[in-house]
Amino acid sequence: MYEPIDFIDMHMHAESRSFEDLSKLYLAGCRGGLAVSGPGGGYSTAEGLADHFRRLDVLERKRLEDAGIHPWIAVGAHPAGIPEQGLDWFLDNWAELARRFNASAIGEVGLFKGGEQEELVLARAFEVAKETGLVVVMHTPVDRKLQALERSLQLLAHSGLDAMQVIADHLTRETLPLAKNAGCHLGLSVHPVKLSPEQASQLVDEFGPDRIVLNSDMGASPSHLFAIPASISAMRDMALDEQTIRTVVFSNAAAIMGMKP
Question: Which of 2, 71, 164, 182 has its CA at a distance of 20 to 30 angstroms from the CA of residue 44?
């Protein structure tokens, strides 16, 4: 009989899930959650995006706490949700917004379709991370993932930000080696359009637990509430040792976020 393993979900869009879902997540073993800023269907203004940050700080933080889950929030302009108006104001005030809303990370940021504007925002995200000392949650897209990651890592290298301050997220068998060699933390998203629990487990088995963090990327679209518990079961089915499993579902994330075991 296995002992229960607590876990941390390092990428969730908590505003799209009910309190009942969050409570079920706690009962399944979730002890911490990073609520990231998402595309939100798009933002017409930078002030609207800032209001989203306020919601994460005021409402989602409390909902997670009330469910028993230690909350962290990340503030960023998702590449599919860059505000249509006021972008310059946002970029100038991003670091202050992170402080005002008690952010623990910058994100979700990254490249989606690519282009000058997305690259401008990502480059500024790295600067804000240097200013604030916060970790960056860096999105990689479903399509053209390798090319997008290569360009993102070029921008990271140019910024001078330590790669250990970046979680390269939504990685696959194709992209994980590149992010690993760059020195980033390695985000595996167990999600219907990303990785299955079995695929994530195979990557942990192949590459080892160093710097790997699992997440659900759960939100408004179809996703897997119990993605990480399912991955724990899949890793056990593959006979991975309990310490390896705990490392990728809890210990690595706790170290990144400064949470004591």
Answer: 71
